[in-house]
Amino acid sequence: MRASHLEDFYQFLRFPSVSTDDSYSARLTECGHWLVEKLTRIGLTAKLHPTPGHPVVWAHNEQKPGRRTVLIYGHYDVQPPDPLELWDSPPFEPVLHDGYVFARGATDNKGQILSHILGIEEQMEANGDLPVNVHLVVEGEEEIGSGNLGNFLAQNRDALKCDVVMVSDTGMIARGVPTISYGLRGVAALELKVTGPKMDLHSGIYGGAVMNPLAAMSRLLASLHDTNGRITIAGFYDDVLPLQEWEREMWSKLPVNPEAELLKETGVPELFGERGFSTLERIWARPTAEINGMGGGYQGQGTKTVIGREAMAKLTFRLVPNQDGEKITALAEEHLRKNCPPSIRLEMTPGHSGPWYLTDPYSQFGCAAQRAMRDAFARDAVLIREGGSIPIVSQFRDILGVETLLLGLALPDCRAHSPNENFPLENLDAGIRINKAVLKELAA
Ligand code: BES
Ligand code: MN
Q1: Whether the predicted pLDDT of 136 surpasses 90
Q2: Quick check: pTM over 0.85?
Q3: Could you tell me if the CB of 391 is within 6 A of ligand 1?
Q4: Which of 162, 265, 426, 428 has its CA 20 to 30 A from that of 295?
């Protein structure tokens, strides 16, 4: 590993590019500028494109006729670092321990997208050009649903014309095992608020005579699942495609024990999920309803005999083929509305969403990716789906008309979105090799 590569990684990680929190806006723009400078220095034409939200970085080499064109996508925004007290070192001051760099965004997605940039840098240095035409699009809003990137793609559709998209923003099933994801789950968000009395009330004076908003919210949230982990929203599973037999068979032969791994990674006493499905199927091919946050009432020290005036909860649904986000949100709203007692008011606000994605890993480009991964790791790639979402991937298909290769570098214990997120330098190197091998395969 070159010292300059590590220095680039550290500089990139020091920007607190938290997209969901407006107070970080200027930091995101600075991070975008840093990328533009880096990409210009390695010989690409690079520009920062403003959007109504955070800017998009767009760079390319000389587009020569008769060559394949690949669009490499990544994101420079990160999830909030909190809870801060659970980090062993500050989230935006990267440190190296035993070959792993610790910082928010180390894996998701700065390490992964940087490895492609460094791969391009090394090739530009060695050959003065790349074997194919390349567009690099690095956005600042992936973690909040990529709300402005679709427009950017539509507005620049002709200039961004390409044969295939390559993304490293997914997982490897284990260290050293090259992993191609041919599916992603989608996501749809819904925020709930229940309000009762016009102010917080003394629970002795009023308790018993009014409905408690927190009790109402608890009932509503509890009504989403039965005890078998199955979602009780009417029609929720109607459009779910069953797992294909070839996938079931392939997944059963993966060189991992998913139950043992998950117990270790999460520290839960026992796994839990929808009855009747394997662990991998539950994560990769079944939809879920998750409560991501809930609040209300007294949260301070000691007791307070109060009936809070409101309660809130943040929900997201993970979606699988062929579910439709808007339809699922509407079904969920209908279910909650029906289950809401008249003695309380319920407000529901849909949030960001992104569709699922499923592609053929044996397509022409899928096979090229499999060969490139074998080349980069000296071992056959495994083919999986992912539980996470990358909202823009389905729009690469809808707007640009191309498929996406998901060549992941995130390790199972990378702690994306959690405290002590980390990325091994070994995978920064692997990403550089993937970049070179894929561009070479696509040129052939
Ligand atoms: N890199 C992840 C997606 C991911 C995670 C893919 C795990 C495969 C395995 C991405 O940055 C992400 O976290 N996306 C969000 C999207 C959402 C906020 C719209 C997600 O999945 O929660
Ligand atoms: Mn993420």
Answers
A1: yes
A2: yes
A3: yes
A4: 265
